[in-house]
Amino acid sequence: MNNLLTSHHKSDSALVLFSGGQDSTTCLAWALARYARVETIGFDYGQRHAIELTVRPQLLSRIRDIQPEWRERLGEDHMIDLALISQLSHTAMTENIAIEMQENGLPNTFVPGRNLMFMMVAATLAYRRGLNVLVGGMCETDFSGYPDCRDDTMKALQVALNLGMASRLKLETPLMWINKAETWSLAAQLGGQPLVDLIRQDTHTCYLGERGALHDWGYGCGTCPACELRARGYQQYRAALSDSL
């Protein structure tokens, strides 16, 4: 295990945007491996399938058991009501409509302003809690083209937040330049097979909220964009693992 994964900065404390999905759980493990104090924040924004919110408490409880020091480092969880987002949006993530591409080239699963608002609210909470690092699962490599997941957006947001609050917050996006197979691999490096199994069995990423059959890659419908990405990444991760043996 390399120093990047195991080192942590005693002067830094992190607030992780934690949805209950694969990416945010991997980011939480990444933060727990690096920082002496970690808290989590989740958002109820009127999402169409709130299954992620229901799996969060169990995930937070079980991730504490993976590494002894993680139990000590993981602090409070904060759940924020952002129903305002669903009132402003007309998307497949907040309403019971079919997933499709829009005229602007973005899928209608894109919720305009969501990640911008998430980060702004998280920064406000971090300011009050004395936390100086925000950690999010945004990714430019395997994503649906969401503009609020891009590295340029996060860098600009970090500048704006620090200017607006006279602060020195850092926005960390550990998944920004890796694909889903590499995200599975990162989880294995951080927490071994127990973390991979936790992500498979206890996280939720499916856009349709399906939690019937447990596939080798986890629960989900298997056909929505989130499931296809997760399943393909897991298959590539397992193939790479086999090749290395």
From TrEMBL:
<feature type="binding site">
    <location>
        <position position="227"/>
    </location>
    <ligand>
        <name>Zn(2+)</name>
    </ligand>
</feature>
<dbReference type="GO" id="GO:0005524">
    <property type="term" value="F:ATP binding"/>
</dbReference>
<keyword id="KW-0436">Ligase</keyword>
<dbReference type="GO" id="GO:0016879">
    <property type="term" value="F:ligase activity, forming carbon-nitrogen bonds"/>
</dbReference>
<dbReference type="GO" id="GO:0008270">
    <property type="term" value="F:zinc ion binding"/>
</dbReference>
<keyword id="KW-0671">Queuosine biosynthesis</keyword>
<comment type="function">
    <text>Catalyzes the ATP-dependent conversion of 7-carboxy-7-deazaguanine (CDG) to 7-cyano-7-deazaguanine (preQ(0)).</text>
</comment>
<dbReference type="InterPro" id="IPR018317">
    <property type="entry name" value="QueC"/>
</dbReference>
<comment type="pathway">
    <text>Purine metabolism; 7-cyano-7-deazaguanine biosynthesis.</text>
</comment>
<keyword id="KW-0547">Nucleotide-binding</keyword>
<dbReference type="Pfam" id="PF06508">
    <property type="entry name" value="QueC"/>
</dbReference>
<feature type="binding site">
    <location>
        <position position="224"/>
    </location>
    <ligand>
        <name>Zn(2+)</name>
    </ligand>
</feature>
<comment type="similarity">
    <text>Belongs to the QueC family.</text>
</comment>
<protein>
    <recommendedName>
        <fullName>7-cyano-7-deazaguanine synthase</fullName>
        <ecNumber>6.3.4.20</ecNumber>
    </recommendedName>
</protein>
<feature type="binding site">
    <location>
        <begin position="18"/>
        <end position="28"/>
    </location>
    <ligand>
        <name>ATP</name>
    </ligand>
</feature>
<feature type="binding site">
    <location>
        <position position="221"/>
    </location>
    <ligand>
        <name>Zn(2+)</name>
    </ligand>
</feature>
<keyword id="KW-0067">ATP-binding</keyword>
<dbReference type="GO" id="GO:0008616">
    <property type="term" value="P:tRNA queuosine(34) biosynthetic process"/>
</dbReference>
<keyword id="KW-0479">Metal-binding</keyword>
<dbReference type="InterPro" id="IPR014729">
    <property type="entry name" value="Rossmann-like_a/b/a_fold"/>
</dbReference>
<feature type="binding site">
    <location>
        <position position="206"/>
    </location>
    <ligand>
        <name>Zn(2+)</name>
    </ligand>
</feature>
<keyword id="KW-0862">Zinc</keyword>
